[in-house]
Amino acid sequence: MNRLLTFVLFVILLFCQFTYAERQISQFGITWTFDRDYTVGQFANGDYWVLGPVTLVDITKSSNMSKRDGSMINPIPSLQHGYDGRVGGYNQNLDVSMLLPNLVVKPNESLISTISRNPTEIERSKRRPALEVASVLTVLGKAPPEGSFRPPYAGSDKPIYSSKKLNTNLLLQLEPVPSTPSLLSVADLFRRAWIDHVLEWQGDDLHPKQNLSNYGAGIARNSGIGALRLLLNDPIEDKELLLIRYVQLGIDNFGLVKNGANWGNVGGTIGVGRKIPIIFAGLMLDNSEIKNVASSYNTRFIFQEDGQTFYLTQAERDATYWEGNCYHPDFCHPGYYDSTPLGTPVWGDRHYKWLTTGYNYLPGKIGYLRTTHKSTIGAALTVHLLGLEELWNYDPFLDWTDRCRNEGITGTWGSVFTEEMWNAYRADYGPVWTMFPILNIVATGGSVTKTPDKTAYTLGEKVILRAVADDGYQFTGWSGVFSGTGNPVTIIMYASRTVTANFAIRNNTQTHNSK
Q1: In the prediction, which pLDDT does 515 show?
Q2: CB atoms < 10 A from the CB of 169, how many?
Q3: Are residues 153 and 176 in the same domain?
Q4: Distance between CA 313 and CA 306 in Å, rounded?
Q5: Cβ count within 10 A of residue 352
Q6: CB of 144 closer than 8 Å to CB of 185
Q7: Out of 55, 419, 421, 510, which residue is the most buried by the measure of CB atoms under 10 Å away?
Q8: Prediction pTM value
Q9: pLDDT score of 514
Q10: 17 half-sphere exposure, CB direction, 13 A CA radius
Q11: CA–CA separation, 297 and 258 (whole Å)
Q12: For 90, which DSSP code?
């Protein structure tokens, strides 16, 4: 009965628009006080909106200390912030709470307010992260439609997306594994906004403790858990709370990307875990701009799991001998890649930064390799389960994950649930990376020649493919790994792949392929 009542109340809140006049709004221990009554309401995820412009006279503070409990409006991803003076990058001019009791917030502005953690503690190890909790108040010019998601908190562009037409038919109905967590416990990971616009180690130091993990590996682990949990065989109505909160995270992360966020050039495991919620949200919303983030933006620069994985070349082998890496034994590994075959998917700290700027950290601290792998298993598995390889748009990360799983790489910041899901389902979805990849050809109405023609290829080997039409047919293009009409084409065998050659009957629009 309690479960049924909870679900009924949730549906009422989700699909019924309640608006009312309030002079004060409270959420997660933060109270915003206005100069008078204003019309307020709630988005699908429970965050508040208010019709403005509004004037705030007070915001909850944890203490009377200055440079604590800051608030920001429409923040842009950077190293600077106005939240807590104990963390590098603090700029008091960005703290709009300094304008109280006459803080005016205009329509299409998102106000992020925070409460500092242990406000009197200066020592980093004792107060990290510096923030206890954060909440987002969005000011709008008119009431949003029922069931609207909160617009992204970053930047001035405030698109409104609807939760009423999510593509829930795309969610799988897989059998649970023994360690499957409850939907409610996973939904609770995404209850509060993941305030993530402060980049690099400063963000690591600030992430509000109640909102999200302060460490990137925790962010990656939890975002993977959230995506996988939605793919199990619970009734869709039971998944709804988690789904809405997870899509909201993807909307926020995409807003950060549009405003210049990049997590790809940082070291260690600070920047992983932001990508899969964006693609997942774009899929559920059927929004082309969001789900194609990896092809519209530089995926290696923005997302660390892509920026640190690659197919090995001789250049990376040579880079490990640079003496500058030996300032500390954790990063000094001359010849680290020498015994690894060229073309193998590998990891290297700040690899993309080295590739584009010459900043050499290769291979980096090996402990970070283990942490990155363990925390990102859920993202890689989600890509395979939902067939998102093209949207992910970066095979080296996916193949590296396969390789690590095959080799039994251990480490911290993992999840028993994601590992059990991997063991249960990975082999059923798509090609698994191998040292001897196989090339499958599908063709009806013609054939494809392979040069060289082998059953299995050496990793990194180039194969020339030429489509040859049968009598009465014409070649119309490739699908699968390739698109377009180029003929011949060359494929590099980094993993087992399937290529389809499409042919059409001459003077007829019918096209033949494997479908």
Answers
A1: 40
A2: 6
A3: no
A4: 16
A5: 23
A6: no
A7: 421
A8: 0.84
A9: 41
A10: 14
A11: 9
A12: B
